[in-house]
Amino acid sequence: MNADQIRQMIETGLPGAHANVSGEDGVHFEAVVVCAAFAGKLPLARHRMVNATLGEYMGREIHALQLKTLTPQEAAA
């Protein structure tokens, strides 16, 4: 599993989302995800939305994923 594969999974699972994913060791990753669907949602709900796009990979191939989730308006500020 690499950062680009994770980015593609997030962007496919959250239509209209833009993800920037990094991770040097192949199991620990950081992602900034910008998605209009996050509007009105608390951070925990946003993280669950992202984690759902990764399904069974969470806790297996992806040991840790540090997330920053923003709406387009929050990202522009």
UniProtKB/TrEMBL annotation:
It comes from the Bacteria. InterPro entries: BolA, BolA-like_sf, BolA/IbaG_stress_morph_reg. It holds the Pfam family BolA. Belongs to the BolA/IbaG family. This is BolA/IbaG family iron-sulfur metabolism protein. It comes from Thermomonas beijingensis. The lineage of its organism: Bacteria, Pseudomonadati, Pseudomonadota, Gammaproteobacteria, Lysobacterales.
